[in-house]
Amino acid sequence: MSQTEIQIEGLEVFFGDGHERTRVVHGIDLSVAQGESYGLVGESGSGKSTVLRALVGLVPDWHGAMRVGGESLQRLGRSKEFYRRVQMVFQDPYASLHPRQTVDRVLSETLALHGIRDGVDARIDRLLEQVGLGGGFRFRYPHQLSGGQRQRVAIARALAPEPKVLLLDEPTSALDVSVQAEILNLLSDLRSEFGLTYLMVSHDLGVIGHMCDRVAVMQTGEIVETLEVDAMRKLQAEHPYTRHLLDSALRSSGHAGMAEVQRTAG
Protein backbone atom coordinates (compact mmCIF):
# COMPACT_ATOMS: atom_id res chain seq x y z
CA MET A 1 0.00 0.00 0.00
CA SER A 2 1.35 3.46 -0.92
CA GLN A 3 2.50 5.73 1.87
CA THR A 4 0.71 8.99 2.53
CA GLU A 5 2.48 12.03 1.10
CA ILE A 6 0.04 14.81 2.08
CA GLN A 7 -2.26 14.59 5.11
CA ILE A 8 -4.67 17.39 6.04
CA GLU A 9 -6.95 17.10 9.06
CA GLY A 10 -9.51 19.62 10.22
CA LEU A 11 -8.01 22.50 8.23
CA GLU A 12 -9.61 25.86 8.87
CA VAL A 13 -8.32 29.02 7.18
CA PHE A 14 -9.21 32.59 8.14
CA PHE A 15 -8.87 35.91 6.31
CA GLY A 16 -9.04 39.37 7.88
CA ASP A 17 -8.65 40.64 11.43
CA GLY A 18 -10.88 41.43 14.37
CA HIS A 19 -14.56 41.74 13.55
CA GLU A 20 -13.74 41.24 9.86
CA ARG A 21 -12.02 37.89 10.44
CA THR A 22 -13.78 35.37 8.23
CA ARG A 23 -13.41 31.61 7.99
CA VAL A 24 -12.94 30.65 4.33
CA VAL A 25 -12.01 26.97 4.71
CA HIS A 26 -14.18 24.92 7.06
CA GLY A 27 -12.45 21.96 8.68
CA ILE A 28 -11.51 19.91 5.63
CA ASP A 29 -9.76 16.52 5.62
CA LEU A 30 -7.87 14.97 2.74
CA SER A 31 -5.11 12.43 2.18
CA VAL A 32 -2.90 12.09 -0.90
CA ALA A 33 -0.78 8.98 -1.44
CA GLN A 34 2.77 9.07 -2.76
CA GLY A 35 2.67 9.17 -6.56
CA GLU A 36 -1.03 10.04 -6.68
CA SER A 37 -2.54 12.93 -8.60
CA TYR A 38 -5.32 14.41 -6.50
CA GLY A 39 -7.67 17.14 -7.70
CA LEU A 40 -9.51 19.92 -5.92
CA VAL A 41 -12.37 21.23 -8.03
CA GLY A 42 -14.96 23.90 -7.43
CA GLU A 43 -16.22 27.24 -8.59
CA SER A 44 -14.51 30.56 -7.85
CA GLY A 45 -14.50 31.28 -4.12
CA SER A 46 -14.78 27.64 -3.08
CA GLY A 47 -11.47 27.78 -1.17
CA LYS A 48 -9.56 25.33 -3.33
CA SER A 49 -6.54 27.57 -4.05
CA THR A 50 -6.48 28.67 -0.41
CA VAL A 51 -5.73 25.08 0.59
CA LEU A 52 -2.59 25.09 -1.57
CA ARG A 53 -1.51 28.45 -0.21
CA ALA A 54 -1.92 27.23 3.36
CA LEU A 55 0.26 24.22 2.58
CA VAL A 56 3.15 26.34 1.27
CA GLY A 57 2.93 28.90 4.08
CA LEU A 58 1.37 31.79 2.15
CA VAL A 59 -1.65 31.87 4.48
CA PRO A 60 -0.58 32.30 8.13
CA ASP A 61 -3.97 32.19 9.88
CA TRP A 62 -5.00 28.55 9.91
CA HIS A 63 -5.84 25.80 12.37
CA GLY A 64 -5.78 22.04 12.11
CA ALA A 65 -3.01 19.62 11.18
CA MET A 66 -1.04 19.36 7.95
CA ARG A 67 1.77 16.92 7.21
CA VAL A 68 3.84 16.52 4.06
CA GLY A 69 6.27 13.62 3.74
CA GLY A 70 5.78 12.96 7.45
CA GLU A 71 6.78 16.53 8.41
CA SER A 72 4.22 18.37 10.55
CA LEU A 73 3.73 21.92 9.28
CA GLN A 74 3.70 24.90 11.61
CA ARG A 75 1.55 27.97 11.24
CA LEU A 76 4.48 30.24 10.41
CA GLY A 77 7.32 29.32 8.09
CA ARG A 78 8.43 26.19 6.31
CA SER A 79 11.74 24.36 6.54
CA LYS A 80 14.34 24.26 3.76
CA GLU A 81 13.63 20.55 3.50
CA PHE A 82 9.96 21.31 2.89
CA TYR A 83 10.75 23.59 -0.05
CA ARG A 84 13.11 21.00 -1.49
CA ARG A 85 10.29 18.46 -1.30
CA VAL A 86 7.35 20.67 -2.32
CA GLN A 87 7.14 23.16 -5.18
CA MET A 88 4.22 25.11 -6.62
CA VAL A 89 3.24 26.04 -10.17
CA PHE A 90 1.02 29.11 -10.29
CA GLN A 91 -1.81 30.06 -12.61
CA ASP A 92 -0.19 33.02 -14.38
CA PRO A 93 3.27 32.17 -15.75
CA TYR A 94 4.05 35.77 -16.69
CA ALA A 95 3.34 37.10 -13.19
CA SER A 96 5.42 34.33 -11.60
CA LEU A 97 8.57 35.16 -13.63
CA HIS A 98 10.69 38.28 -13.08
CA PRO A 99 10.39 40.33 -16.29
CA ARG A 100 14.05 41.42 -16.14
CA GLN A 101 15.55 38.00 -15.57
CA THR A 102 16.53 35.61 -18.33
CA VAL A 103 15.48 31.98 -18.17
CA ASP A 104 19.09 31.17 -17.27
CA ARG A 105 19.03 33.51 -14.29
CA VAL A 106 15.63 32.28 -13.10
CA LEU A 107 16.87 28.69 -13.03
CA SER A 108 20.39 29.38 -11.74
CA GLU A 109 19.07 31.48 -8.84
CA THR A 110 16.58 28.76 -7.97
CA LEU A 111 19.35 26.16 -7.89
CA ALA A 112 21.53 28.44 -5.74
CA LEU A 113 18.64 29.09 -3.35
CA HIS A 114 18.45 25.36 -2.70
CA GLY A 115 22.21 25.02 -2.26
CA ILE A 116 22.82 23.37 -5.64
CA ARG A 117 26.02 24.85 -7.09
CA ASP A 118 27.72 21.93 -8.82
CA GLY A 119 27.16 21.34 -12.52
CA VAL A 120 24.71 24.24 -12.83
CA ASP A 121 25.10 24.61 -16.60
CA ALA A 122 24.35 20.95 -17.22
CA ARG A 123 21.42 21.03 -14.79
CA ILE A 124 19.86 24.02 -16.55
CA ASP A 125 20.23 22.37 -19.94
CA ARG A 126 18.65 19.20 -18.57
CA LEU A 127 15.75 21.10 -16.97
CA LEU A 128 14.99 22.86 -20.25
CA GLU A 129 15.06 19.57 -22.12
CA GLN A 130 12.75 17.98 -19.55
CA VAL A 131 10.09 20.63 -20.17
CA GLY A 132 10.43 20.56 -23.95
CA LEU A 133 12.54 23.69 -24.42
CA GLY A 134 15.95 23.62 -26.08
CA GLY A 135 19.08 25.53 -25.18
CA GLY A 136 18.02 28.36 -27.49
CA PHE A 137 15.55 29.51 -24.83
CA ARG A 138 18.13 29.77 -22.06
CA PHE A 139 18.96 33.46 -22.42
CA ARG A 140 15.53 34.75 -23.38
CA TYR A 141 13.43 37.07 -21.25
CA PRO A 142 9.80 36.32 -20.34
CA HIS A 143 8.45 38.85 -22.86
CA GLN A 144 10.24 36.90 -25.60
CA LEU A 145 8.30 33.73 -24.76
CA SER A 146 4.75 32.62 -25.47
CA GLY A 147 2.40 31.85 -22.60
CA GLY A 148 2.98 28.13 -22.98
CA GLN A 149 6.75 28.59 -23.07
CA ARG A 150 6.63 30.74 -19.92
CA GLN A 151 4.67 28.04 -18.13
CA ARG A 152 7.26 25.48 -19.22
CA VAL A 153 9.94 27.68 -17.65
CA ALA A 154 7.86 27.91 -14.46
CA ILE A 155 7.61 24.11 -14.41
CA ALA A 156 11.37 23.81 -14.97
CA ARG A 157 11.94 26.14 -12.01
CA ALA A 158 9.66 23.97 -9.87
CA LEU A 159 11.60 20.86 -10.91
CA ALA A 160 15.00 22.44 -10.16
CA PRO A 161 15.32 21.25 -6.53
CA GLU A 162 14.11 17.76 -7.52
CA PRO A 163 10.88 17.86 -5.48
CA LYS A 164 8.61 14.97 -4.62
CA VAL A 165 5.40 17.04 -4.70
CA LEU A 166 4.03 19.63 -7.12
CA LEU A 167 1.13 21.84 -6.09
CA LEU A 168 -0.60 22.93 -9.30
CA ASP A 169 -2.84 25.99 -9.04
CA GLU A 170 -4.87 26.19 -12.27
CA PRO A 171 -1.66 25.67 -14.31
CA THR A 172 -3.33 25.98 -17.72
CA SER A 173 -6.28 28.32 -17.18
CA ALA A 174 -4.32 31.43 -18.26
CA LEU A 175 -3.13 29.77 -21.49
CA ASP A 176 -4.59 29.61 -24.96
CA VAL A 177 -6.74 26.54 -25.51
CA SER A 178 -4.35 25.41 -28.24
CA VAL A 179 -1.48 24.92 -25.75
CA GLN A 180 -3.38 23.78 -22.66
CA ALA A 181 -3.31 20.12 -23.69
CA GLU A 182 0.44 20.32 -24.37
CA ILE A 183 1.14 21.54 -20.84
CA LEU A 184 -1.17 18.95 -19.29
CA ASN A 185 0.52 16.17 -21.27
CA LEU A 186 3.92 17.47 -20.16
CA LEU A 187 2.83 17.39 -16.52
CA SER A 188 1.48 13.84 -16.95
CA ASP A 189 4.76 12.72 -18.50
CA LEU A 190 6.83 14.33 -15.73
CA ARG A 191 4.73 12.65 -13.06
CA SER A 192 5.32 9.26 -14.68
CA GLU A 193 9.03 9.88 -15.21
CA PHE A 194 9.85 11.15 -11.72
CA GLY A 195 7.16 9.52 -9.58
CA LEU A 196 5.79 12.90 -8.52
CA THR A 197 2.78 13.50 -6.31
CA TYR A 198 0.34 16.16 -7.55
CA LEU A 199 -2.25 18.18 -5.67
CA MET A 200 -4.03 20.07 -8.42
CA VAL A 201 -6.60 22.86 -8.27
CA SER A 202 -8.91 23.43 -11.23
CA HIS A 203 -12.41 24.65 -12.03
CA ASP A 204 -12.32 22.52 -15.21
CA LEU A 205 -13.63 18.97 -14.89
CA GLY A 206 -12.01 18.05 -18.21
CA VAL A 207 -8.60 18.96 -16.80
CA ILE A 208 -9.26 16.97 -13.63
CA GLY A 209 -10.40 13.99 -15.70
CA HIS A 210 -7.21 14.15 -17.75
CA MET A 211 -4.80 14.57 -14.84
CA CYS A 212 -6.12 13.09 -11.62
CA ASP A 213 -6.85 9.78 -9.91
CA ARG A 214 -9.20 11.16 -7.27
CA VAL A 215 -11.01 14.45 -6.82
CA ALA A 216 -12.43 16.37 -3.89
CA VAL A 217 -15.28 18.73 -4.72
CA MET A 218 -15.23 22.01 -2.76
CA GLN A 219 -18.13 24.37 -2.15
CA THR A 220 -17.92 27.50 0.04
CA GLY A 221 -14.87 26.23 1.91
CA GLU A 222 -16.03 22.66 2.48
CA ILE A 223 -15.33 19.34 0.78
CA VAL A 224 -18.79 18.08 -0.11
CA GLU A 225 -17.75 14.91 -1.95
CA THR A 226 -14.65 12.87 -2.73
CA LEU A 227 -14.74 10.39 -5.58
CA GLU A 228 -12.58 8.44 -7.95
CA VAL A 229 -12.13 10.18 -11.29
CA ASP A 230 -13.44 7.03 -13.01
CA ALA A 231 -16.72 7.52 -11.14
CA MET A 232 -16.79 11.18 -12.15
CA ARG A 233 -16.32 10.21 -15.80
CA LYS A 234 -19.32 7.91 -15.48
CA LEU A 235 -21.36 10.74 -13.91
CA GLN A 236 -21.73 8.74 -10.68
CA ALA A 237 -21.72 11.73 -8.32
CA GLU A 238 -23.98 11.71 -5.26
CA HIS A 239 -23.84 15.26 -3.88
CA PRO A 240 -26.17 17.81 -5.55
CA TYR A 241 -23.33 20.33 -5.98
CA THR A 242 -21.12 17.77 -7.74
CA ARG A 243 -24.02 16.90 -10.01
CA HIS A 244 -24.48 20.63 -10.67
CA LEU A 245 -20.84 20.93 -11.77
CA LEU A 246 -21.19 17.91 -14.04
CA ASP A 247 -24.42 19.22 -15.53
CA SER A 248 -22.79 22.61 -16.12
CA ALA A 249 -19.89 20.95 -17.92
CA LEU A 250 -22.34 19.04 -20.10
CA ARG A 251 -24.24 22.20 -20.98
CA SER A 252 -21.22 24.45 -21.45
CA SER A 253 -20.36 23.54 -25.03
CA GLY A 254 -22.75 20.96 -26.41
CA HIS A 255 -21.53 18.17 -24.13
CA ALA A 256 -17.91 18.92 -25.08
CA GLY A 257 -16.84 19.52 -21.49
CA MET A 258 -17.72 16.10 -20.14
CA ALA A 259 -17.02 14.44 -23.45
CA GLU A 260 -13.42 15.47 -22.88
CA VAL A 261 -13.55 13.88 -19.42
CA GLN A 262 -15.00 10.69 -20.84
CA ARG A 263 -12.44 10.50 -23.68
CA THR A 264 -9.68 10.29 -21.08
CA ALA A 265 -11.14 7.13 -19.56
CA GLY A 266 -8.93 4.89 -21.66
TrEMBL record:
The scientific name of the source species is: Alloyangia mangrovi
- Into which family does the record put it? Belongs to the ABC transporter superfamily. Glutathione importer (TC 3.A.1.5.11) family.
- Cellular component GO terms held in the UniProt record: plasma membrane
**Membrane topology, record value:** Peripheral membrane protein
Q: How does it assemble?
A: The complex is composed of two ATP-binding proteins (GsiA), two transmembrane proteins (GsiC and GsiD) and a solute-binding protein (GsiB).
EC class of the enzyme, as a word: translocase
User: Where is the organism placed in the taxonomic lineage, from the top?
Assistant: Bacteria, Pseudomonadati, Pseudomonadota, Alphaproteobacteria, Rhodobacterales
The reaction(s) catalysed by this protein are: glutathione(out) + ATP + H2O = glutathione(in) + ADP + phosphate + H(+)
Q: What is this protein called?
A: Glutathione import ATP-binding protein GsiA
- List keywords of the entry alphabetically: ATP-binding, Cell inner membrane, Cell membrane, Membrane, Nucleotide-binding, Translocase, Transport
> Which compartment or compartments is the protein found in?
Cell inner membrane; Membrane
Q: Does the keyword Nucleotide-binding apply?
A: yes
The UniProt entry's GO biological process terms, in alphabetical order, are: transmembrane transport
Annotated ABC transporter domain residues = 8-245
